[in-house]
Design a protein that fits this description.
single chain, mainly beta, 35% strand
Length: 181
């Protein structure tokens, strides 16, 4: 509001520690607050392959972490790392099971091949990784998608009547602002 802008969309965008600092890579306008983590580890973040949501000057991309490390930092001035990847080059993550019993609210992002669109989604009900990944691959036809978070997922989009209740206690966030009217 002090910059005469209003928030039209926001979602939590990656795993975070108790102090709300990002678990993996977090870069904003070229300033890197946390470096990339490429090794396997515990929890969803460490279920490789994981990935990075990259916001460039004129394109967006979801990139598998190993590939991301070969990019020039200038190609991706803003980024957040999370995991696991949901869809990798049109294929579901190899560890997702159709009959999984792990069901949570989930949110994530997928990007178009041309890098012109980022599609954010949050489930209204609990879903498996497999079900959520199929949304991106089969319904939205996106070649790459990244899981952001689970049970604590929030999405604020007043135009869609999504308030994002509980939004203040999250770690990395991605959002869109427009000039205030």
């Amino acid at each position: 509001a002090t910059d005469n802008q209003r928030l039209v969309f926001a979602t939590n965008a990656g795993m975070y520690h108790e102090d709300r600092s990002p678990v993996g890579l977090y870069r904003e306008d070229g300033d890197e607050a946390q470096g990339v983590i490429a090794s396997a580890g515990p929890g969803n973040f460490g279920m490789l392959p994981n990935g990075v949501f990259c916001i460039g000057e004129d394109r967006v991309a979801v990139v598998e972490t190993g590939r991301f490390q070969s990019l020039d930092a200038a190609e991706c001035p803003s980024a957040t790392q999370s995991g696991p990847m949901l869809v990798i080059d049109g294929e579901l993550h190899p560890r997702f099971l159709p009959d999984s019993t792990s069901r949570y609210i989930r949110n994530g992002v997928g990007t178009s091949t041309d890098g012109k669109r980022a599609i954010f989604a949050i489930s209204n009900d609990v879903v498996t990784f497999h079900e959520f990944a199929r949304l991106y691959r089969d319904e939205l036809d996106l070649p790459n998608a990244l899981y952001f978070d689970g049970n604590i997922s929030r999405l604020r989009a007043p135009g869609l009547r999504r308030t994002g209740a509980g939004f203040t206690t999250l770690g990395p966030i991605v959002g869109i602002v427009t000039p205030a009217k």
